[in-house]
């Protein structure tokens, strides 16, 4: 039987607007999600028994059922018991490059890669939209990670409309290694503090939001104009995360003061902050300036760029 190695890219949020709370505890969102080159490697090896086993080179990543990649494999085993019996279980080896608990969808992209890898291992022939649907039961960002590219995401983040892809826009990412922000906390706090500003008077809130509120940034993306995109970056969750996490605010302000930075924003619920720049050379210069300003080795800095695809196969043996 074959084994597969998949490349699972991270994402950033170019736009995140919270439209409303929902009866199911989630929030109705309008987001623009963007795949970036920074990626993990996921190796899937068939087993002769029916077990699921996860290994990871990162000490902070759990290898039990609390790992979303494990849950993705368990979901496939439940959905396709005959394939599990025929082909056997799977050993999943994750080589982490994406910072953990960072607002970059690291766990979600690992789960998406496992869904796609097991589809190949078990010869299931699932379509992308079937994989996205399975992904939505694991987490709100998983369908996007299956799809990849540049996408408007509405609903709780699982309803996707692709945009023309935005290639080769360079950026610097900054994250303090020891700092984590709980996504559930960020949304809950936003709901408590700002729910009075929710729109409640339209039938199709998400569609309206995507059409009206994010219109400017969508136009900039259609023009592939990084300067305009950078001007229109938006993330409602900054309203709760920046006041509660001074280190995130500090990164945000420091990026904004750097020469060559077109725009800066926190990704998802943070704590990663990204800064869009004009070129790879600029990105390296901004990274160096940040490192000089904050010599703390706890600060992780990455130069990366936008890409036009999601999960890709690296190797099949
Ligand atoms: O879907 P996922 O498990 O990734 O979401 C993590 C948490 O973020 C949820 O438990 C919920 O508290 C919050 N969330 C939300 N609205 C969304 C997406 C996530 O409130 N649309």
Automatic annotation (TrEMBL):
Catalyzes the phosphorylation of the position 2 hydroxy group of 4-diphosphocytidyl-2C-methyl-D-erythritol. It is an enzyme of class 2 (transferase). Keywords: ATP-binding, Isoprene biosynthesis, Kinase, Nucleotide-binding, Transferase. HAMAP family: IspE (MF_00061). It comes from Umezakia ovalisporum FSS-43. It comes from the Bacteria. GO terms for molecular function: 4-(cytidine 5'-diphospho)-2-C-methyl-D-erythritol kinase activity. ATP binds at residues 99-109. Pathway: Isoprenoid biosynthesis; isopentenyl diphosphate biosynthesis via DXP pathway; isopentenyl diphosphate from 1-deoxy-D-xylulose 5-phosphate: step 3/6. Pfam families: GHMP_kinases_C, GHMP_kinases_N. Belongs to the GHMP kinase family. IspE subfamily. Its EC number is 2.7.1.148. It catalyses: 4-CDP-2-C-methyl-D-erythritol + ATP = 4-CDP-2-C-methyl-D-erythritol 2-phosphate + ADP + H(+). The active site is at 11, 141. Residues 218-293 form the GHMP kinase C-terminal domain. This is 4-diphosphocytidyl-2-C-methyl-D-erythritol kinase. Residues 67-149 form the GHMP kinase N-terminal domain.
